Amino acid sequence: xxxxxxxxxxxxxxxxxxxxxxxxxxxxxxxxxxxxxxxxxxxxxxxxxxxxxxxxxxxxxxxxxxxxxxxxxxxxxxxxxxxxxxxxxxxxxxxxxxxxxxxxxxxxxxxxxxxxxxxxxxxxxxxxxxxxxxxxxxxxxxxxxxxxxxxxxxxxxxxxxxxxxxxxxxxxxxxxxxxxxxxxxxxxxxxxxxxxxxxxxxxxxxxxxxxxxxxxxxxxxxxxxxxxxxxxxxxxxxxxxxxxxxxxxxxxxxxxxxxxxxxxxxxxxxxxxxxxxxxxxxxxxxxxxxxxxxxxxxxxxxxxxxxxxxxxxx
Length: 314
Prior knowledge:
The protein is mainly alpha-helical. It has 13 helices and no strands.
């Protein structure tokens, strides 16, 4: 055999050195919440709504940072329905004065506390109550599900504003906690339905079945396995509903059934400003605009959270 052929056969029989394959950098897998936060930070809708909400929350908690005027101080002799001075930014006369000679700007700043407090506390209460009812109904099923679902249907069939009016008219003094409890008493049904539907889907998952097979207690299964995976749609509904509770408080106060003087609230100012709509429309329009901006901010936040948590919208 020629030498060239021998060399070729020798080379063919030699072991071929393995070429190392390029290794891809494998990062730590993100959870649902970290993935949602990753998307939220890049959402203009979330950024705009979050900035507005932080601003409104700061104004509600620390109103003294925005004005030193007293929202209850009235001076009819000098300030009766004075028109706004739009160039005096953050001054007492920026938004003008109402029919009692009170600074509208000061009342807008201090009114944020009552309106936002009602909305936030009501949202927390209905979220807790609705989640508990929905989880119990969805997990246990049977007669427990039947009873809780029928009770939910009864409350769900009552018109929200009309039911709140009926409840509030039974109280002689309607301070802020009375309004909160009245709204929470009627507002938990939607979250209960959402939580029940989510639990019905999750309780059939393999990890829940495995926990049952290993002898985990019912409370551990509900709190450690079902609740963390069922809470996402509840948070979305609660965030969107928070803006609705602000408008509900303003509506009830406008009708004279919710908060009343001397409480400083946007709804109270809207109610008192309706009488001056023709000759001093700014008294009604300015607090109405604040309600609209606040409701819009929370609805935008709810939409952004829904887009981040719903895999179907990715």
